[in-house]
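Reviewer 2 asked us to include a model.

Predict the structure of this chain.
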Amino acid sequence: MRALLSSFMTNHSSAIGIEKHVLSPGIVWGLLGVGAFSFTVPFTRVAVQGLDPVVIGCGRAVVAAVLAAAALMFGRACVPTTGQWLRLCTVSVGVVVGFPMCTTLALRDVGAGHSAVLIGLLPAATSVVAVMIGGERPARRFWFGAALGVIATATFSVVGHGAPGAPTTSDLFLLAAVALAAFGYAQGGLLARELGSWQTICWALLLALPVTAPVTVVATGGHLPHAVAGQWAAFGYLSAVSMFLGFFAWYRGLAIGPITTVSQIQLVQPVLSVGWAVLFLGEHLSGELVVGGLAVIGCAAFTVRSRVVHSRPPGHSTRDSSIHSASSMSSPSAEMSR
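Predicted model (structure tokens):
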């Protein structure tokens, strides 16, 4: 176990050369994470047919927290500082509680394909948050692209249902999920440079446990819910992969960064999710879904590709920041010393 965990802390390359190679280490780790996350929406759609949304949204975080406790114990991870705990709250609220709960509630009423396309706004949202809290400096076209993405998403939410009208409650849940996940991703990526990728998600899961555990117990009434094997299998994937192992790779990629660069890998996630929904769930690939998906993904692509890629935390040069990002993960002893 310790050997597996330490592999996520090994230095593969400097973040300085991230623009020179399409498949840089950060991109590769990001692809692994997105590949794991791409099954989240379809499997949530399966699980919600037999399990209460609250049980899925919070219950998978409880199962993942048990795995996290074991990982932290075997990995002998250092306890975060007070300031890091406060920042971990953002990660817990965003990706441990907020995103799972909002998407699960939305998927009671809408298909996996429709949800996946709306979640396609997440790359641009993550980049916006990275600009806000990570010191990354985009070009003016970045903000233009972000505005287009919001307009495209709102338009798709209206016409995707077949007739003009106000967005549904499910659409609002999905947009809330995007906003919460964006903050959780960006802050988690920054913390991963200090704590390590797997340590960040593990501590965030444990931090949320005093909330997720009681809520899950109340939702289940203290009894094991009734569901078929396929629904439990989907719940198992959401717990062990979507809520746990997937973040090992994803936060590793964001930590290598820059966050605005690696976050663009999320652009392939809605495409994959729609594909899985059509392939495994038999959902119909409508013309509106295709057009809406292309519009949202296109706007997100324009946004994240229109920025100037560099990170400049206060008081540091771009080069110093990149070296610090790479060196902070250079060895297990470097991370453990924090």
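Residues 298 and 318 are 29 Å apart (CA to CA). Residues 2-8+23-332 form one domain. We have added this to the supplementary material.
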